[in-house]
Design goal:
283 residues, alpha/beta
Length: 283
């Protein structure tokens, strides 16, 4: 079914338009938009990793969210800006402008439906700047719209306790943590018999790269033929379940705090008829 990992009662698209119009406090109801990508993740993981993680973590958080906190998940945006992986079959990429306009258009639809709090949970490390740009443009258009662009992994979690020092320093793609989490979310898609390890060379200048990761533009093939940048071999499903549990709990806290949060509301300044705000009217 379309709701995936999200509980059906927390899935916005299962409501009818009159049900949405009757929601008691749309302005403080948190709408959560997972954004992922479809791109190679080595020979052992599916191309849907980033979408699975974004949608899976959001869904598990909404499953645990107290009933007193009004929040709904949306269907994920599955395709992202993944051109760094285009040399591998299975990668599906859209350009940055297409992704930017898509996120903005989705945000405008959320706003027209009467909601004023949108949480974007991005699961792909190659596009946070696009999420930031979309959120800023939506805020410029609508002074009573609060949009938080965030990253799936950028909340407290326990993955670090399972990772070797080199993995923490250099892993970027299809390594230990991602592999363990997919083992928890979609174990049937993981083929550990094909797993291999591959690390990038450490970037030579500490003035340009604080952690040793490449500070130059790169594509996945720069680090070898597998598409892996890290070591997935030590990953286990038990680790993944613990990581998922910690991520879900942190996102429950984040959604709860966003619901309670009050932010600046300013009068809109009209700058074009194509960007006028307003709720959907109820006949």
């Amino acid at each position: 079914m379309l709701h995936g990992f999200t509980p059906p009662h927390r899935f916005l698209h299962y409501l009818s338009w009159p049900q949405i119009a009757r929601l008691p406090d749309r302005a403080n109801t948190v709408i959560v938009l997972p954004v992922g990508s479809i791109e190679q993740h080595g020979p052992h993981l599916p191309c849907a990793v980033d979408t699975l993680i974004a949608a899976g973590v959001v869904g598990k958080a909404l499953e645990r969210l107290p009933a007193s906190v009004p929040a709904f998940g949306m269907a994920p945006i599955c395709y992202g800006k993944s051109d760094e992986h285009i040399h591998f079959p299975g990668t599906v990429t859209i350009d940055g402008d297409t992704l930017l306009r898509t996120v903005i258009d989705v945000g405008e639809s959320v706003y027209r439906s009467g909601f004023r709090k949108l949480l974007i949970v991005n699961g792909h490390g190659g596009q946070p700047q696009v999420m930031d740009m979309a959120a800023r443009e939506l805020r410029v258009r609508h002074g009573d719209f609060v949009i938080i662009p965030h990253f799936t992994w950028r909340v407290p979690h326990v993955a670090g306790k399972f990772l070797a020092a080199k993995e923490k320093r250099l892993a970027m793609h299809a390594g230990h943590a991602e592999t363990a989490l997919i083992m928890a979310l979609a174990p049937e898609t993981v083929n550990m018999q094909e797993a291999v390890a591959a690390y990038p060379p450490e970037f030579p200048s500490a003035t340009m790269s604080a952690d040793g990761r490449p500070a130059c533009a790169w594509t996945a093939r720069d680090f070898g033929p597998s598409g892996v940048i890290g070591d997935p071999l030590p990953a286990t499903r038990e680790q993944g379940l613990e990581i998922l549990d910690s991520l879900a709990d942190s996102w429950v806290k984040a959604i709860t705090e966003f619901h309670a949060m009050q932010w600046v509301v300013r009068p809109d300044v009209s700058w074009g008829t194509s960007h006028q705000s307003g709720d959907i009217a109820t006949p």
